[in-house]
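User:
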Amino acid sequence: MIIGLPKEIKDNESRVGLTPSGVKTLTDFGHTVLVENTAGIGSGITNDEFVTAGAKIISTADEVWERGEMIVKVKEPVGPEYTRMRAGQLLFTYLHLAPDQHLTQVMLERKITGIAYETITNNEGHLPLLTPMSEVAGRMAVQVGAHYLQKPEGGRGVLMGGVPGVLPAKVVIIGGGVVGVNSIKMAVGLGSNVTVLDRNLERLRYLDDIFGAKIKTLMSNDYNVQEACAHADLVIGAVLIPGASAPHLVKRFMLATMHKGSVIVDVAVDQGGCIETTKPTTHSNPTYYVDDVLHYCVANMPGAVPRTSTFALTNATLPFAVRLANKGFKDAIAKDAHLKAGVNTYAGHITYEAVAESQGLAYKAIDELL
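Assistant: Predicted structure:
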């Protein structure tokens, strides 16, 4: 199979879809890997490293897309990449289609076979390809929140861990999944006062067992979310419903009860955000205010630490990329139900039910189409 590795063009996105070790694994199986010139430079990976691993360096993105039977990326296609996609092409990347009707329509019109990292499953029911970036984003959320709580950055001037005689920052984390757990680790490590909300009591019991008296747990409902946010210095949105748009758990009216200069970091922004006032931002223009509350809603947070993120992502995605390349799309998903769960679009149809429901469009199971 011919595998294309284009350079990411989303704002300040410096990750790349494969590391040299991933390229070598694929070329050792006899596949051809076409890497766009300087695609890895943002992650500290040179053309020479890719060539040593067996890749061929291609000068233009157009040629990578034109020749690639499978395109391996990090983020969803944007801008000029829309017209580079062609019918029957296999696109293996994060897609986050539920809140993005325009991209969905483009992929349907161009009959792209879209396999989304974020909906591939494993035997435990987890999302193994989403996990590494959720770990990065969860840890980053606290770093980012601590930064923007500083007065020169627009925050209310609170130190996360406080000092003797002065209380630490109050951090509220909404969602106890992978993002939430990693945010808890960082916030607890900085000495913050941490409250975690989740609607799953078993999850709250688990978090209580792990972190004990270092955190407070609350059942997630409108009343508790409003009360927790009203006293928070930093609110982290860490809600995920696989493949679907995130529910708005922090309503606009709740912001009026929050401290002036408090900070919201909505990690769920990729799926539309779990804060009603969330709108996607970029690394070059990351924040805005609503009701004197600073919002940080960058849709590709791990792109700020691309070397860590690229290597962590390839560790998770490579086995699936190898299966797709070695077996071909139809045979690979026929023998792997977890990979099949990643198929979001095929032959002009939405094949992931949560995406169809989020957009009010027709859904057709992939088994019906093959």
